[in-house]
Amino acid sequence: MRSFIASLVVLVAGAASARAEPVVTITPASIHPGDPALVTVTNVTEAPRGKAGGQPLAFYRATNGFQAVFGAGLGIDEDHVLVEVAGAKPISVAVLSKKFPETKIVVEEEYANPPKADLELIDADNRAIGAAYAKAAGAPQFRRAFKRPPGATTSTFGEWRTFNDGHRAQHLGLDVMAREGAKVAAINDGTVAYAGETFLAGNVVVIAHGAGISSLYFHLSKITVAEGDVVKQGDEIGRAGHTGRTTGPHLHLGIHIANGLVDPVAFLKLRLSPAPPPAGV
Ligand SMILES: [Zn+2]
After folding, report:
1. CA dist., res. 233 & res. 242, Å (int)
2. What CATH number has the domain bearing residue 244?
3. Which residues have a Cβ under 8 Å from the Cβ of 220 and sit 6 or more positions away?
4. Which of 83, 62, 60, 63 lies closest to 71 in space, CA to CA?
5. 262 alpha carbon to ligand 1 midpoint, in Å?
6. CA of residue 134 to ligand 1 center, whole Å
7. Each residue's pLDDT tens digit, 107-126
8. Is 275 domain-assigned?
9. What spacing in Å lies between the alpha carbon of 177 and ligand 1's midpoint?
10. What does the angle CA 51 – CA 52 – CA 55 come to, to the nearest 5 degrees?
11. Are residues 259 and 180 part of one domain?
């Protein structure tokens, strides 16, 4: 009890000297491999410096303090992510193990076991989409919460898939039911960072939202936007389809943040609240 009172006295003394410490809040308090989390820092006047798992956090001004998003990679081999914000005590975020569902998938042979020429195409696609992620750096281009596309879930993030030829891969997005030709809308405001045809994902649109966040839309039958277009939440960006490696028409939604692709369902739960830009900007 005595030491508790002593630390209270220290806290009060700290407040009185106006050298207030940043207050760091992380939600959720524990995550799974492939989950994102939100760091909110209050009691500061300028953007804090910080790291999560050794990677720099890109803070943006929020309606209350500053925020940054980080994630645990699907392949994480530690049971926690250490979040360090300058001037505050480091916080350890527990990474709980998770058993991902298993499924078998039969696709056309060219997709299950692509020939060398197609593997080169796949590499080029990955490079193009990777370059699009870089365009998500900088201030948030959105003010509202991200909105889940309509349609029942048909496959979740992280599901293990065994293909015809026996190779296994994890599913890196959320699949929702969508009939061929159904409108596909931007899940939030942003700028089209990539719009094109790929080998595995078919017709793809990537939207850069700022704050390091990109949303990806795969297997479209048709793309109705072009790179550089500014889109608002709900704007049509294309039509649903089954281009690329699919077993039928649906929308595959991906979410990419600074340290990789994360579970869209977990991402949609984060309370991101960017502040409006300063007047005159
Ligand atoms: Zn998918």
Report:
1. 23
2. 2.70.70.10
3. 184, 202, 203, 204, 205, 238, 239, 240, 241, 243
4. 83
5. 13
6. 22
7. 888 787 788 889 999 999 99
8. no
9. 10
10. 65
11. yes
Asked if residue 218 and residue 152 are part of one domain, the reply reads yes
Residue 61's φ and ψ, nearest 5 degrees, are: -75, 130
Q: How many structural domains does the chain have? A: 2
The model's pLDDT over 126-178, given as tens digits with 9 standing for 90+, comes to 999 999 999 999 999 999 999 999 999 999 999 999 988 888 999 999 999 99
Q: Which amino acid is at 273?
A: S
- Please give the structure tokens belonging to residue 214: 């990109």
Of 65, 95, 125, which one is at a domain's C-terminal end? 95
Give 208 Cα–ligand 1 centroid separation in angstroms. 19
Q: How far away, in angstroms, is 156 Cα from ligand 1 center? A: 8
Contact call for residues 163 and 39 (beta carbons, < 8 A): no
Give the Cα separation of 181 and 187 in Å (integer): 18
Between the CA of 104 and the centroid of ligand 1 the distance, in Å, is 14
Could you give the CA distance from residue 64 to residue 115 in angstroms, rounded to a whole number? 52
